[in-house]
Structure formats: structure tokens, C-alpha cells
Amino acid sequence: MSTITFSTETLAQRWAEYRQQHPKNRIRNAADDLGVSEMELLATQCTGQPDAPVTRLRAEFSNILQQVPTLGRVMALTRNNSVVHERKGPYLDVSINGPMGLVLGEDIDLRLFLMHWQHGFAVSEDGRRSLQFFANDGEAVHKIYLLEDSNGAAYDELVTQFTAENQSPDVTVEPAPTPAAEAADDTIDVEGFRAAWRALPDTHAFFGLLRKFGVTRTQALRLGPPELVRQVGNDAIAQALHAAAAAQLPIMLFVGSRGCIQIHTGPVQRIVPMGPWLNVLDPNFNLHLKAEDVAESWVVQKPTTDGIVTSLELFDAQGNNLLLFFGKRKPGIPEQDAWRELVAGLK
Q1: Residues in the chain with pLDDT < 50?
Q2: pLDDT, tens digit, 9 for 90 and up, residues 70-91
Q3: Does 3.40.1570.10 match the CATH number of domain 8-90+119-162?
Q4: What kind of architecture, by CATH, is found in domain 185-344?
Q5: Which residues have C-beta within 8 Å of that of residue 125, sequence separation ≥ 6?
Q6: What pTM, to 2 d.p., does this model score?
């Protein structure tokens, strides 16, 4: 969201100057430094001319998404402030039900919350073409990048079909929703909450449990059944990734924005620390975690009808979930013993 108001023309000029001074910085970093949202910067390049690098799309996100499979193999990107999740593959088995959507391919696996998708753009930058979607506050919720073997003609057809009549660079951003204040621990029915946690039928019921007892995610971990939660060091994510890579243990890594949760399922191979970032750099999957942003790390167990499901969960200093890390599993199949042993060794 903007903290300073600029005219579109002034903002475009400021961004051009910024890029000259910081040619390696990404648009998200530029937006932070200039006190605006990423979408506001992007929209300054929306001119309506045939050679414009940015084209505004109509807000027909369900129809757009159901046409994305025609693009073939692409790269899906979902991120929050501290983690970037990139997965290559085709969009398959796309289904939309009102404001909720699913993409259930083996490579691209998404949970979509379309009530937060408000703006869409087709973008051409440095030879890369993409579809980029944003919430009302100008934060990106999901991006889809073409690869060398993507169907460029299908992309052009999609963009032509969904190009908006309004190609003005002017956009309006609204403040992001303010999270509800956390209730004091002594106002929570802790024993009732713990009993309900122990009786969970599946992992999805956990979010209803939080709402029922009025607790935040990190508060739930502090107050949860002591035999089912334990806090570990914030280097546990590096330990777990290295151990999973060494064992070639298939895992699941969930990263979410407000409008999308993106899931990688499978093994990881190359774990590469680089400056403040902890990276997975595999041919079809990349993960970039800003390790210094991890304020809390928890090993969490949830009962299900298939037995206990164990996760490693990371949070920032504001209590926002950064990443969820599971062993690979599907409903009806118990959790892998090798995953439980790996997590048991985290300190």
C-alpha cells in the first residue's frame, strides 16, 4: 500500500531513476524503497499502446485460470514477505467453485482464494512474459511465467481475449485488512481447546478449531497439547531440508499469499544458503527463504483418522505463517515413518 502519494507520471519517472541506480533490484524491492505497492509500479507501464510492456486484464480470473492449461509447461510463483515458492509444470485439473479454486496437477498444486484476486496484468519484462495477479492493496497473490517450451501463441491468444478496455496506468490501492488483536491467554478455554485438538478428525479441521476458540496460530501452538507441540530452533528448517535431501525423502512444502497456497510435493536435492537466503535450487522447484525473518519454528502434530500428521511450521515476528513442511502423504495413507524420525531429530 502507498505510504506516499505520487502522480503516475512522477512515479514512473522515480522508478526509471531507481532502476538506473539499482539495476539488479527486483520490482518488489523497488516498491518497498519507493513507498508504494508492486502493482502501482507495474501499472505505470500500462499505456494501451501495442508495444506496452504491461497490459491490464479484465477481472475474469476464473475464466483466465481455466485457459492457463493451454499454455503448457510454465512456472508458477507464489510468495509472502519472506518466502518465494516457484514450481514448473503444466496447470492441470483446474476447477473453480465460486471464490475458491483448485489446481491439482502433480507439478502445479494450488489452493486459490479468488475473493482476494482484484487485478490482473500481462507483463513482458527482459524477454520474460507472465500473467500477474494482485490483491486490492497492490500485493501480488500469484504469478505465472512462460518458459522456453511454453505455448507462446496460446499466451498471446489469452491476453488478446482478456485485455481490458481500460488501459490507464492509474490504480487505486486499499489498506490490507488489519488482523484481529490476539486475545489474552487467560481468556482462552485452554483445556477445552486442548481436548478439541486431541479429537481432530483431519488437518483441515484445525482452522475451524482456531476460530471456535478465538486463538491465533502462534497462540494455538503456545497453548496446545504439550505432547503434540514443541518449539524448535529457527535453524530447524535448514536441518530438515538437508536431511530430506540426503535421504531423498519425498516431502510437501506449502507457501501462501493471501490469495493462493502453492504446494511442492516430491524430493528436494540442492540446498544452497546464499547470504540471508536459504534456497532450494532444483530443476523444477525453487524455494527462497529469508532465514532472518523466521521468528518461531514449531513441530506440530495433528490427529487424523489416518493417524498423527506431523509438520514443521515457521512464523515471522508478527505471527504470520511463512511456510508449512510435511512429509509426503495423501488422505487414507498414514504418515511415513522416515518423516517422523526426521522431525523427531530436530532441535
Answers
A1: 1-4
A2: 999 999 999 999 999 999 999 9
A3: yes
A4: 3-Layer(aba) Sandwich (3.40)
A5: 53
A6: 0.95
